[in-house]
Amino acid sequence: MELSSLFKQIFNKDVEATYIAPARVNLIGEHIDYNGGKVLPCAISCYIKGLVSKREDNQIVTYSTNYSNMFSSPVENIKYIKDNDWSNYVFGVFEILKQEGYKIPFGLNVLLDSNIPLGSGLSSSAALLDLVLYIANDMYNLNIDLKTIAKLAQKTENEFCGLKCGIMDQAAIALGKKDKAILLDCNKFEYEYKDISLGEYSFVILKTNTPRNLVDSKYNERVEQCQKALSLIRNKLKVNTLCELEVNQLEKAKQLINNELIYKRVRHVVTENDRVNRFMLALENKDINELGNLLNQSHISLKEDYEVTGKYLDTIVESALDSGAVGARMTGAGFGGCAIALIRTEEFSKFKESVESLYFKKTKIHPEVFQVDIVDGPTRIN
Ligand code: GLA
Fold first, then answer.
1. Hey, which of 44, 157, 168, 269 would you mutate to test ligand 1's pocket, going by the most ligand atoms within 8 Å of its Cβ?
2. CATH topology of domain 3-196+375-380
3. Residues catalogued as catalytic
4. Which atom of ligand 1 lies at the shortest distance from residue 163's CA?
5. Is residue 182 in contact with ligand 1, taking CB distance under 6 Å?
């Protein structure tokens, strides 16, 4: 059924406006956004769509085609309800907007339809948050700029949904630009668009097709370990974030931290931030081998020091390297989800076939290997 007909059937109203928001992939700079580092994500051509009409009452009523269920809440009495899973992201946005002093003068019907693989490390939840903020901004004429949309989306995730995430995903989606990666300084919240065209080479996405378990609790644990590390070194080493540390200060940090596990987390953060700078240089020089090396080093660091990869991400990265990738690494939070690989574009079909077969042999799971376009951020399409 067409989405507009489904909308009519569910809400007994015609669609008044339709919006989309893309997914994102991060090229390098993993688990450092919440440590004041630089990251290099881009918005990609998988989308969540929101069809909307105004209501005469104060209810937010929302239906998802992906889950085939509907939730509603009055604007004046929004609560986090664990069992209402995805709808918390919708209602949370309205709650945070209210707390920030924005006026929500009437309710909305919102039908959501997403082709972003859910829970796969491509930020389906940040896309949903940004989309709902973008919708509210337009429907209520709130005059919120894109950077603030990203901040409010992060605030919703942090304070309403309980994930202590950094700003990367919400910003990558809100600020997405066709054919450009976003070099985002998460400490200053400043960004620059960067060309990442590499002639005969391109980045592809590898989806492990495994459920990501306990992501939230393990993610929050990593954030807390970093906060703990910072509290142990900040005065002595005069830094305000872990990413202000230089690689050559690691030995000093190690002595102050005096805990092997916490130190490993810090070593990942500091070396990863350094890799982002080296990656930018390699991009400028179109140094494909160096880009590949940095991707590989990033994965090893996330596997051994940060311990967020797991069997399936490690296997898919290994399969990619055995299939001719110049480099490969997990992307996003980890614990399952997706990886990226840098390959010679004309070898895509051969590469895909080989990864599918190698990964299946080792895991008995069929992965997905696909190319994406880099696209603009959220927009109203009619
Ligand atoms: C998730 C979070 C981001 C970031 C990445 C890891 O996607 O939402 O803020 O920390 O993990 O780089």
1. 168
2. Ribosomal Protein S5; domain 2 (3.30.230)
3. 169
4. 8
5. no
Nearest by Cα to 104 from 65, 126, 81, 135? 135
Q: Is the pLDDT of residue 170 over 90?
A: yes
**Segment 63-106, tens digit of pLDDT:** 999 999 999 999 999 999 988 889 999 999 999 999 999 999 99
Tell me, using a 6 A CB cutoff, whether residue 34 lines ligand 1. yes
pLDDT digits (tens, 9 = 90+) for 300-346: 999 999 999 999 999 999 999 999 999 999 999 999 999 999 999 99
User: Quick one: pLDDT at residue 212?
Assistant: 74
Buried b (16+ CB within 10 A) or exposed e, 227-242: eebbebbeeeeebebb
Q: Which atom of ligand 1 is nearest to the CA of 32?
A: 12
Q: Are strands 108-114 and 59-64 parallel, antiparallel or unpaired?
A: parallel
The full set of domain ranges for the chain reads: 3-196+375-380
Nearest CA to ligand 1 atom 1: 333
CA–CA distance, 230 with 6 (Å, rounded to integer): 51
Please give the model's pTM, rounded to 2 decimal places. Answer: 0.97
